[in-house]
């Protein structure tokens, strides 16, 4: 699961017994060599889908980590790109990475549950971050994303189909979540990291309640499962345009299905 450059078991143990923030501060120098980083194949497929409806103006990578999502935004945004995370260690690694000439990137240390921005973004992306929020925290998180988007702006994130019950992958995720729940029951501070906490239906309903129009789009690069359902979907949540624009039929074109 880990490359030779990744963390040792002893390092992972120390990180797992820390808070989420402290754990990621410690993991940051080796994070890109772990399976926790979003695969390049998913990042590239997200870029391809966004280019169909772009370009966008300004973009925000929510819980940006070491900046993989920022590199997605730099390919589809024309004005400005910002990465926000509450781990100083992850932001330090993100800042140190070499990037091609182009848009400058702003890095902001902040909690995603209290974003220090007004409605200044046309696109917000997030990769692999939702498992760090308890279900009770998601309404507030979605409200924050809604707050920082301009009318017509989009919140986009890839969502992998959950493994089938009874499969080895399902057993591994269930085992991991069980270990984390036991850990959090007996150890403080808690380390919130659950892979099975968020379902498609819960995402859909939560985002609609926050004021978004929601759709799930298949990413064709990953094919379909035996039941013909997509292996990976792109969640696209759009903030309503101003009333006068909606009446005129203006606005950004939809992403290709």
Automatic annotation (TrEMBL):
Sorted UniProt keywords: Methyltransferase, Transferase
EC category name: transferase
Gene3D superfamilies, per the entry: Vaccinia Virus protein VP39 (3.40.50.150)
Organism domain of life: Bacteria
Cross-referenced Pfam families: Methyltransf_25
Keyword Transferase part of the UniProt annotation: yes
GO biological process, one term: methylation
Keyword Methyltransferase part of the UniProt annotation: yes
Domain Methyltransferase: 60-153
InterPro entries the record matches: Methyltransf_25 (IPR041698), SAM-dependent_MTases_sf (IPR029063)
Gene Ontology MF terms: methyltransferase activity
The EC number(s) this enzyme carries: 2.1.-.-
Protein name: Class I SAM-dependent methyltransferase
């Amino acid at each position: 699961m880990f490359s030779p450059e990744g963390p040792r078991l002893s390092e992972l143990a120390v990180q797992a017994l820390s808070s989420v923030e402290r754990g990621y501060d410690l993991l940051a120098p080796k994070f890109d060599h772990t399976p926790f980083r979003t695969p390049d194949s998913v990042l590239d497929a997200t870029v391809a889908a966004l280019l169909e409806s772009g370009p966008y103006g300004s973009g925000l990578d929510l819980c940006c980590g070491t900046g993989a999502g920022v590199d997605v935004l730099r390919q589809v945004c024309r004005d400005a790109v910002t990465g926000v995370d509450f781990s100083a260690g992850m932001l330090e690694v993100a800042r140190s990475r070499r990037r091609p000439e182009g848009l400058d990137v702003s890095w902001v240390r902040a909690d995603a549950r209290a974003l220090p921005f007004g409605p200044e973004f046309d696109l917000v992306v997030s990769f692999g971050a939702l498992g760090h929020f308890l279900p009770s925290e998601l309404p507030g998180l979605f409200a924050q994303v809604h707050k920082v988007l301009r009318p017509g702006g989009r919140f986009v994130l890839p969502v992998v189909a959950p493994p089938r019950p009874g499969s080895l992958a399902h057993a591994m995720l269930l085992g991991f979540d069980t270990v984390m729940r036991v850990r959090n029951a007996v150890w403080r501070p808690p380390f919130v990291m659950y892979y099975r906490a968020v379902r498609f239906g819960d995402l859909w309903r939560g985002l609609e309640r926050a004021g978004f129009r929601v759709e799930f789009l298949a990413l064709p690069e990953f094919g379909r499962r035996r039941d013909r359902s997509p292996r990976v979907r792109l969640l696209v949540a759009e903030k309503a345009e101003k009333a006068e624009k909606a009446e005129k039929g203006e606005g950004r074109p939809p992403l290709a299905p």
